[in-house]
Amino acid sequence: MATIELQNLRHSYVPEPKGPEDYALKHMNFTWKDGGAYALLGPSGCGKSTLLNIISSLVTPSEGKVLFDGRDVTPLTPDQRNIAQVFQFPVIYDTMTVYNNLAFPLKNRGFSRQRIEERVREIAGLLEIEPLLQQRAANLSPDNKQKISMGRGLVRDDVNVIMFDEPLTVIDPHLKWKLRSKLKELHQSVQTTMIYVTHDQTEALTFADEVVVMEEGQVVQIGTPVELFEKPAHTFVGHFIGSPGMNILPAEMNGEGPSFHGTAVPVANPPARLEGNERLEIGVRPEFVRFARKGESGLPVEVLKTTDTGRYRLVFARAGDTKLHAILPEDESEAPTGQAEVIFDPERTRLYADGWLLEN
Ligand code: ADP
Ligand code: MG
Q1: Ligand 1: distance of its center to the CA of 12 in Å?
Q2: Which domains are seen in the chain, by residue range?
Q3: Strand 299-308 versus strand 4-11 pairing type
Q4: How many other CB atoms sit within 10 Å of the CB of residue 101?
Q5: 191 pLDDT band (50/70/90 cuts)?
Q6: Of 55, 75, 78, residue with least CA distance to 9
Q7: For the chain, what is the radius of gyration of the CA atoms?
Q8: Counting atoms of ligand 1 from 1, which one is nearest the CA of 42?
Q9: Which end of the chain is more exposed for a tag (fewer CB within 10 A), N or C?
Q10: Distance of CA 27 to the CA centre of its chain
Q11: What is the pLDDT of residues 104-146, one digit of tens each?
């Protein structure tokens, strides 16, 4: 196991990159703590696979270094880095039995016969593929092939890090949650550093202790699932995580503080100082929007529709051209219709400048 450090990393697939847009990975400094369960979360094309492949050395970064426990491993091969990587699509030997597929990484490293047998049985048990051990891999379903591929990644317990690149893409939905919780269980028992790449927030939030959120080649926030929910560092995080995501309203400053369409909106982070040319936005999650009670005044909206999920009610509204969601508890109260007014919880409403959360 090792602490993995990325130092001044940048990568471009273009031979002579000109602007930032030519970089698949923009400037990156980051340390993956030894033994952590990480998810790397971001939309397709944001650079997740590029980053994993740099850690495993399938890609050599244009600039910067990769260090394992303080040692520069940038020139080393995947084998020398002693890592396991599981890809989106199965990588297995079709002609071998399932048993031999799982045993292969251990044989390669000179493990004893007895140790191999133990580990293969253990991992096969975990992935529920024990009955398949003596079958040839060739004729198995895509699900089972991918389980073998995952097994090959998990079978060695002496690696520095195990990396999964969207490993559940080809897995049946009902199996997904099961495998995901197994991975989590496994991490808790072996404590090997794991990096799990996904574009799916549910996968990321259920697997990881810490989630690294990426957008357009850069890390926008690193935090626990709770931190990402409660205090998004960037409007992208607020919008990408949550269902529906955070409401984002264009804002301006008046003498008192931020306002939207002329209505003052109290926020938890009133800025001490602004340049004056920032693009300001107010962010509030639908969970922290409620309708004004009699005698209260709030932000005027038009309610478009309400859907009842059985656990809560989701209200779709708009204020001018700006869409707004509110999540209301299931209770006796009437869901408002037509013209209404909303109030944001001021402790959970924050101001963003050029996308980034303002510090106060
Ligand atoms: P993700 O895994 O998050 O979907 P990738 O790391 O695969 O993102 O891709 C990041 C960016 O780099 C994308 O714009 C993609 O088109 C580009 N890219 C990825 N691999 C290559 C490659 N081998 N050659 C050129 N461009 C690539
Ligand atoms: Mg990818």
Answers
A1: 9
A2: 4-236 (3.40.50.300), 243-357 (2.40.50.140)
A3: unpaired
A4: 25
A5: confident
A6: 55
A7: 24
A8: 3
A9: C
A10: 19
A11: 999 999 999 999 999 999 999 988 999 999 999 999 998 899 9
